[in-house]
Amino acid sequence: MNEQKVMSVLLEPKVTEKSSMIGELNNQYVFKVVKSATKPEIKKAVELMFDGAEVQSVQVSNVKGKTKTFKRFPGKRANWKKAYVKLKPGFDIDFMGNG
């Protein structure tokens, strides 16, 4: 895999109440990823983007888009893929940065 493709796998961290609880209990982090991403690609992307983080496991979930009404017309939000990344003990990801 080329490094450029790996860098574009992670779209954004999903920071919610549920993901915060999971992070504290299991040392897991939740990311929105490209729909075509595989588990090995996600693992490489996390280890590359966050220096010093070693991934223990990756779980992937496909999230269906909600059906919503826009003005008077029915519509649908896009489907997306969610990745739960568990780090090895002693490792951490800092989203805020130190500088």
How would you summarize this macromolecular structure in one to three sentences?
With 99 residues, the protein is an alpha+beta fold.
3D architecture notes:
It is a single chain. With 99 residues, the chain is of the alpha+beta class. It has one domain: Alpha-Beta Plaits (2-Layer Sandwich). Helices cover 26% and strands 35% of the residues. It is built from three helices and six strands; from the N terminus they run αβαβαββββ. The protein has helices at residues 3-7, 17-26, 39-49; strands spanning 10-13, 28-33, 55-63, 67-70, 73-76, 80-87. The chain has a four-stranded antiparallel beta sheet. A two-stranded antiparallel sheet has the order 4-5. Strand 4 (67-70) and strand 5 (73-76) form a beta hairpin.
* Quaternary assembly: single chain
Q: What CATH first level would be assigned?
A: Alpha Beta
Strand content: 35-45%
Helix content: 25-40%
Main sheet: which strands, in order across?
Answer: 1-2-6-3
Termini separation: 31 Å
Count of spatially separate domains: 1
Largest sheet: 4 strands, antiparallel
CATH architecture: 2-Layer Sandwich
CA-based shape: globular
Task: Output the CATH topology.
Answer: Alpha-Beta Plaits
Structural class: alpha+beta
Mean of residue pLDDT values: 90
What's the number of helices? 3
By CATH, the superfamily comes out as RRM (RNA recognition motif) domain
Radius of gyration, CA atoms, in whole angstroms: 15 Å
- Unreliable runs, pLDDT <50, ≥5 residues? none
Total count of strands? 6
H/E order of the elements? HEHEHEEEE
